[in-house]
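Reviewer 2 asked us to include a model.

Predict the structure of this chain.
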Amino acid sequence: MAVTAREPRLDSPDPAAQLAAYLDYYRASIERKLDGLDDRALRTSRLPSGWTPLELLAHLVHMEQRWFVWGFLAEDVAEPWGDHAGGADGGRWAVPADAGRAFADGLLERLHATGRRTSGILASTPLETRGALGGRFTGDDPAPSLLWIGFHVLQEYARHAGHLDIVRELHDGGTGE
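Predicted model (structure tokens):
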């Protein structure tokens, strides 16, 4: 893990720009933490809870898409709960048994593509705008604002990047951003 990046130096009065910069930073951080892990390391759990780095990556890809595309925009997405063995009913994170580095690389491409979509949404939509009904949000409860969704996704990335810090340190002693 020789590649490092700094926390965004953007200090903008525009909270949407701040959110987009930090989300980009955490996506890149996740990629750095996975860099150099081979198929076995990607599929090996180092924690009692049993999740693997590859399962965590799949979760992040689906999570961001669930909140911004399926949730906020109410667009159809293939398998919004595809990171969970039980689908919408939950269950532990899951990936195909034979998934490895090539699968991870494909997920990383999806992670960054979804990130570009998220950045576009944040740049073009007022943060107080409520999520559309029809995708994730059905009207039983008020759909959250784009600001709430942005902060929720940001905290998911920050928390899971910290989890990967621990996993990487247990794997090979790597520490850092």
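The mean pLDDT is 91. Helices lie at 15-34, 39-43, 53-72, 101-124, 146-172. We have added this to the supplementary material.
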